[in-house]
Write a structure and sequence with these properties.
With 326 residues, the protein is mainly α. The protein has 14 helices and no strands.
Length: 326
């Protein structure tokens, strides 16, 4: 895809059309490769009943994906059209710094669906394992969020001129959004176990309404940081609504209290770190290293407070010890 886009844009000078052609032919190539791989594993046959089930199951994903795209594009449009060039630049810079947690969060979300159904089909106690898995992954991503939030400030100071340093206030709220997305993926996974994805239509519809309303008011009232707050509010609402539908289909006892404690602990240490923003480099680095070392211990303590997670940790440690003794 990249090579085709470069060839079309640089060599043939097709501009935007070249980018579109690159994406189109890149996706076609991926599709062909996936078909070849699939045909090696499965025989080709036309099963009308299966096709009908697949269409009924996935048809609601079309409008939900459309609404999700509208939310993303609307946010960018509102920022560019409402805010000044400097504010838009600050938002763009802070967004770039949050890329590491976005990449890791996206990888987790893409892998989750297959892993979710594998656990349901193969494990003896799938609900407990799904709960523990969600807790551990959310703990890991919370630690990454805190890391991006505190070290991203130093990256910002090193890589940008001083007039862009005010973007540091955006890093923490923007970097929590991928964390909320992975929480949403876990919490809403019960919906996938049903006969169709209809609840997602409701979830994304509520999310779109919430986003449009909150974005309009918060962007005017708080400026560029209002856009981040709007997305955070929207994702929290979507988590709550999806949890309602998900639990009706598959009662996975996700540890909501643990999630709240994790995020609260993250907010607290980020808030403490912000007190030292104007201190000299040595003091800032000392505080940032200290937080980076202490916060995993805080996460572990929170995990050990709950029986399911504690038993999973102890069981894993016993297994490691047994393997070493062999």
């Amino acid at each position: 895809q990249v090579s085709i886009s470069v060839l079309a844009v640089v060599v043939f000078g097709l501009g935007v059309l070249g980018m579109l052609l690159g994406q189109f032919f890149g996706q076609i190539l991926v599709f062909i490769i996936l078909v070849i791989i699939t045909f090696k594993e499965y025989k080709f046959e036309v099963n009308k009943l299966l096709i009908k089930k697949m269409i009924n199951y996935g048809i609601y994903s079309v409008p939900t994906q459309l609404m999700d795209t509208i939310m993303n594009q609307l946010g960018q449009f509102m920022i560019k059209s409402t805010l000044s060039l400097k504010e838009s630049g600050l938002f763009a810079i802070a967004t770039r710094i949050t890329v590491p947690i976005k990449i890791i969060g996206s990888s987790m979300r893409y892998a989750h669906s297959g892993f979710f159904f594998q656990i349901l089909n193969e494990e003896k106690e799938p609900l407990k394992i799904l709960r523990a898995l969600a807790s551990f992954y959310i703990a890991l991503l919370t630690y990454l969020w805190v890391g991006v939030a505190i070290w991203g400030v130093e990256v910002l100071k090193v890589l940008t001129p001083i007039e862009f340093h005010s973007a540091h206030t955006l890093i923490a709220p923007l970097s929590i959004i991928p964390l909320l997305l992975i929480i949403y993926t876990f919490i809403s996974s019960g919906i996938d176990s049903g006969k169709d994805l209809k609840p997602y239509f409701v979830v994304n519809g509520v999310g779109l309404i919430t986003y449009i309303t909150s974005l309009y008011f918060l962007l005017i009232e708080f400026g560029v940081i209002g856009a981040a707050y709007s997305t955070i509010i929207t994702r929290i609402i979507m988590i709550l609504v999806s949890n309602y539908f998900s639990q009706k289909r598959l009662k996975v006892p996700y540890n909501i209290l643990l999630i709240v404690l994790m995020i609260s602990a993250g907010i607290l240490v980020i808030y403490i770190n912000n007190f030292f923003y104007n201190e000299n480099l040595k003091i800032r680095l000392f505080v940032e290293v200290l937080i980076s070392l202490i916060f995993p211990i805080i996460c572990l303590i929170i995990l050990l407070l709950f029986n399911t997670e504690r038993n999973q940790i102890i069981g894993r440690l016993k297994q490691i010890k047994t393997n070493k003794n062999k």
